[in-house]
């Protein structure tokens, strides 16, 4: 038996010992002091912090804020004092509230701490976690809930970028960390120059469009006047290029769209996948946030590399070998543009990538299908459920009755269904050879179920 299945089996045994709060008895069910697993849903985006209120025998209210709650299904470990569950936010829909043993509660505390350390290891966090273990359980629960939040709060994706702020004024010293890589920024307006000079580590050269690119430059960043670089952008690009195995044929980063409210660092981040040639042919997802090898930039010219269609052509060529393309997953560019990324299409033979055979032949952007392609490749439809017969039955019945595609299978993943009508339906649909039902007991986790 695999380690994962052993954990699932252990979790099932523990769940059978939980003391569930019965919300159907009265509006304010009584709860004993202890650790609880709270499974609840939050419908859509909310503008408040969901809360639970417990009223003791003296009529005093203690409140538990569910820090880290997010839209959709949530599962949290919380500590509740003894009393009546007097009220909770209207945005909360409880699925289960189960009291666990003191030993299981403490074990889960340590597990949450350990999993957090795996992602965000630091000596400061270890020290904080050790101190937490000696806190009052109610206080410990509040601090523990903070680990459910992404590191850095809602703008956690800027954590590494903002972390460099403390080094402002140390440009010369930081240049040593990024030595050996020279980066030029090509601008289209002189007004951009002053902003670039204020970066944590300025560019080696700032070139006005149309000017020659010096031989000493290794990479060029084409920067329209609608785009800006975040403070440590040059430093982080140089370090990423140095650590890359070989010389990248192209470098691209994530980007952000600016916010009119200057008190907010960011608004609409765009997180990009690792290099994918097929995806790039479908959509110009790397956009303007890129650094181009200076040798290519010299061939094209410093004015032309500011054009979107030229950048796209360079990217298409570089993506013929994605192992040589570097994706830096940091939002180093900020854009003032009001429109999202656009994919240029060749309109005539003189388009920048007109030398590619399929452009001359077909006149549009396409990939050649492999001659080994199967006209009817197998498709598996994975459907997780837990007593969701009201949506499961119409879904499966419709697929079986209406799908014209032949080579498919349906895998229903049963996440602990208990209703007799659901189990009878499972028996019924498995008479069809295209349908199978597999068991995944334990907590519901959509990604884990699909991976399983």
Describe the structure.
The protein is built from 15 helices and 18 strands. The two termini are about 15 Å apart. With about 450 residues, the chain is an alpha/beta fold. The longest helix has 18 residues, at about 100-120. It has helices at about 5-15, 100-120, 125-130, 135-145, 160-165, 170-175, 195, 235-245, 275-280, 295-300, 310-320, 355-360, 390-400, 420-430, 445-450, and strands spanning about 20, 30, 35-40, 50-55, 60-65, 70-80, 85-90, 90-100, 185, 205-210, 220-225, 225-230, 250-255, 290-295, 325-335, 380-385, 410-415, 435-440.
Low-confidence stretches: 260-264
Helix content range = 25-40%
Q: In percent, how much strand structure appears in the residues?
A: 15-25%
How many β-strand stretches? 18
Strand order of the largest sheet: 10-9-11-14-13-15-12
The major beta sheet can be summarized as: 7 strands, mixed
Class computed from helices, strands and strand pairing: alpha/beta
Mean model confidence by pLDDT: 85
Oligomer: single chain
Cα(first) to Cα(last) distance is: 14 Å
Brief digest:
The protein is an alpha/beta fold and 452 residues long.
Task: Outline the fold blueprint.
Blueprint (H helix, E strand, L loop, with lengths): L2 H13 L3 E2 L9 E2 L2 E9 L8 E5 L5 E5 L6 E9 L2 E6 L3 E8 L2 H18 L3 H10 L4 H9 L13 H5 L7 H7 L5 E5 L5 H5 L7 E4 L10 E5 L3 E3 L3 H11 L6 E8 L19 H6 L7 E4 H7 L7 H11 L6 E11 L21 H6 L16 E7 L3 H14 L5 E7 L5 H10 L5 E5 L6 H6 L1
Parallel strand pairs: 9-10, 9-11, 13-15, 16-17, 17-18
Antiparallel strand pairs: 1-8, 2-7, 3-6, 3-8, 4-5, 4-7, 11-14, 12-15, 13-14
């Amino acid at each position: 038996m695999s380690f994962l299945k052993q954990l699932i089996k252990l979790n099932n045994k523990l769940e059978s010992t939980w003391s569930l709060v019965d919300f159907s008895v009265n509006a304010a069910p009584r709860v004993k002091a202890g650790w609880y697993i709270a499974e609840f849903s939050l419908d859509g985006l909310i503008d408040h912090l969901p809360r639970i209120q417990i009223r003791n025998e003296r009529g005093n209210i203690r409140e538990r804020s569910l820090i880290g709650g997010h839209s959709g299904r949530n599962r949290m470990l919380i500590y509740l004092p003894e009393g009546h569950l007097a009220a909770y936010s209207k945005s909360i829909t409880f699925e289960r509230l189960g009291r666990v043993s003191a030993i299981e509660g403490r074990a889960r505390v340590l597990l949450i701490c350990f999993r957090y350390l795996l992602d965000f290891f630091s000596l400061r966090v270890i020290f904080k976690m050790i101190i937490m273990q000696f806190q009052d359980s109610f206080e410990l629960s509040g601090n523990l809930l903070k680990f459910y939040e992404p590191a850095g709060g809602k703008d956690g994706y800027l954590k590494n970028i903002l972390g460099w702020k403390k080094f402002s004024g140390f440009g010369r010293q930081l240049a040593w960390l990024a030595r050996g890589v020279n980066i030029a920024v090509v601008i289209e307006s002189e007004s951009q120059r002053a902003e670039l000079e204020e970066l944590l580590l300025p560019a080696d050269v700032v070139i006005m469009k149309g000017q020659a690119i010096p031989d000493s430059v290794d990479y060029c960043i084409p920067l329209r006047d609608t785009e800006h670089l975040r403070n440590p952008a040059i430093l982080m690009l140089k370090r990423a290029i140095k650590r890359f195995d070989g010389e990248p044929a192209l470098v691209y980063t994530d980007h952000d769209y600016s916010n009119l409210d200057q008190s907010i660092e960011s608004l609409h981040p765009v997180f990009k996948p690792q290099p994918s040639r097929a995806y790039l042919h479908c959509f110009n997802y790397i956009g303007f946030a890129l650094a181009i090898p200076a040798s290519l930039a010299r061939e094209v010219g410093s004015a032309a590399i500011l054009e979107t269609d030229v950048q796209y052509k360079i990217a298409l060529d570089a993506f013929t070998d994605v192992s040589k393309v570097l994706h830096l997953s940091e939002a180093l560019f900020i854009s003032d543009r009001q429109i999202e990324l656009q994919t240029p299409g060749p309109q005539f033979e003189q388009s920048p990538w007109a030398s590619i055979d399929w452009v001359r032949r077909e006149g549009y952007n396409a990939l050649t299908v492999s001659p080994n392609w199967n006209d009817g490749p197998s498709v598996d439809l994975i459907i997780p459920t837990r007593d969701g017969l009201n949506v499961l039955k119409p879904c499966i019945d419709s697929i079986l009755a209406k799908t014209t595609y032949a080579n498919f299978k349906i895998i229903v993943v049963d996440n602990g269904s208990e209703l007799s009508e659901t189990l009878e339906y499972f028996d019924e649909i498995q008479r069809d050879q295209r349908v199978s039902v597999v068991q995944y007991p334990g907590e519901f986790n959509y990604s884990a179920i699909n991976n399983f």
